[in-house]
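Field log, afternoon session.

UNIT: design team B
ACTIVITY: writing a sequence onto a fixed backbone
BACKBONE:
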C-alpha cells in the first residue's frame, strides 16, 4: 500500500484514497510530505526547511498514528456529508449529473430497443421530478429512482 501525507494541505492518502483533516499538531512541524510504501518498507520524509530528505524503512509512531486514523476520518466525513442539510440547488446538481450520464439513451443511434428507450425516458422523467417537494433535507433521505434494470 502506498501511503502519503501532504502536510501543507493536511491530506492523508492511502493508495490514492485521500482524506483531509487537521492532524498537524500530531506530527513534526517541519514535515512537508511523507511517502511510504508498505509493500517494500521504503519511504521518504520531506522537510519544509533545507533539511535533506530522510529515507525511512518504517513509519515513526506519530506518522503511523495519523495513517491509522484514515478510515475513521473518512467515515466521519462521509456521514457528515450524507446527513447534512443541502439546498435544492445542490440536489439539482446531483440530478443533472444523473441526467447527463443517461443522455445517450435518448439518441437516435442508441443501441437500445424502443422498449428500453421508453424505460430510460421514464427514469429520466422520474429524475426531473425528483426535486418536487424538497427545499432542504439530508442527502441520505432523498429517494432516488432506480435506473432501468436495477432494483436495489
Amino acid at each position: 500500500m502506498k501511503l502519503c501525507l501532504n502536510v501543507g494541505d493536511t491530506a492523508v492518502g492511502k493508495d490514492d484514497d485521500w482524506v483531509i483533516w487537521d492532524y498537524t499538531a500530531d506530527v513534526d512541524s517541519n514535515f512537508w510530505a511523507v511517502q511510504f510504501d508498505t509493500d517494500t518498507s521504503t519511504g521518504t520524509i520531506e522537510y519544509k526547511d533545507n533539511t535533506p530528505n530522510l529515507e525511512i524503512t518504517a513509519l515513526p509512531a506519530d506518522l503511523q498514528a495519523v495513517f491509522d486514523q484514515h478510515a475513521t476520518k473518512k467515515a466521519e466525513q462521509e456521514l457528515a456529508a450524507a446527513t447534512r442539510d443541502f439546498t435544492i440547488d445542490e440536489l439539482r446538481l446531483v440530478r443533472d449529473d444523473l441526467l447527463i450520464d443517461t443522455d445517450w439513451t435518448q439518441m437516435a443511434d442508441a443501441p437500445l430497443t424502443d422498449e428500453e428507450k421508453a424505460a430510460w425516458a421514464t427514469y429520466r422523467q422520474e429524475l426531473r421530478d425528483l426535486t418536487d417537494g424538497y427545499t432542504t433535507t439530508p442527502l441520505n433521505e432523498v429517494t432516488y429512482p432506480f435506473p432501468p434494470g436495477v432494483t436495489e
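LOG NOTE: Residues 88 and 135 are 5 Å apart (CA to CA).
NEXT ACTIVITY: expression trials, pending approval
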